[in-house]
Write a structure and sequence with these properties.
Number of domains: 2
Order of helices and strands: EHEHEHEHEHEHHHHHHE
Number of strands: 7
Structural class: alpha/beta
Number of helices: 11
Strand order of the largest sheet: 2-1-3-4-5
CATH class of the largest domain: Alpha Beta
């Protein structure tokens, strides 16, 4: 599904994507609020979401789609090259971002990367993650991570990668309620209170797989 407030850009993206043998655009939205409605109705595998849109921006729309537990992978589309945007996208439920000026060369790789369960990163963002990891990987954090069971570590990693409780449950052959119990327990052990804190912890620990660029 495409979510962008520029009809010409959506039309161009639709043409590019529909030309791929394994991809098809099932719907479009012109703003963040419409993107949420269309996502609920269509339940697409992937949503390509512009960050800057009227009524509701793409980051807020991604947060709400994530909180609804929809089985969608989300890829942000942006003009901004700053690697800092990566953190906002990951914290809000996305699995990476593509620069609008790099759509022709990067879009299909990005889509296939996130469908495979990985995070799509540009080289500049990868370097930033590495520096953050080295800066934040304290002895105290290593001790905290060591308190987690293997199952809690799996839930931590999959949650940080943007999977919903249902998707994690399907992968680990457990119930969504059990996954939520593991998540609650690991967040208590790590003294984390929000998903954004969990994502930052996973980034600093180097737990996210990075492809792309």
């Amino acid at each position: 599904m495409l979510a962008d407030d520029h009809p010409i850009l959506r039309a161009g993206l639709r043409t590019l994507i529909d030309a791929q043998p394994d991809m098809h655009v099932v719907g479009e939205a012109g703003d963040g609020a419409e993107a949420i409605e269309r996502a609920q109705a269509l339940k697409p595998d992937v949503i390509i979401m512009d960050i800057a849109m009227p009524k509701m921006d793409g980051l807020e729309a991604m947060r709400r789609i994530r909180d609804l537990g929809l089985p969608c992978k989300m890829l942000a589309l942006t003009m901004h090259a700053e690697a800092e945007y990566l953190f906002k996208v990951l914290e809000d439920g996305g699995s990476g971002y593509v620069l609008k000026q790099g759509v022709d060369s990067d879009l299909f790789e990005a889509i296939r990367t996130i469908i495979a369960g990985n995070v799509f990163l540009y080289p500049s963002a990868t370097r930033l993650l590495l520096s953050r990891y080295l800066e934040g990987n304290t002895d105290e954090e290593r001790d905290e991570y060591g308190k987690l069971s293997e199952r809690e570590r799996e839930v931590l990693k999959l949650t940080a990668e943007g999977y919903s409780s249902q998707e994690i449950a399907d992968q680990l052959i457990l119930s969504p309620k059990t996954i939520e119990t593991y998540r609650s327990r690991l967040m208590q052990k790590l003294n984390l209170h929000h998903r954004s804190e969990l994502v930052r912890f996973a980034l600093r620990r180097g737990l996210l797989k990075a492809n792309g660029g």
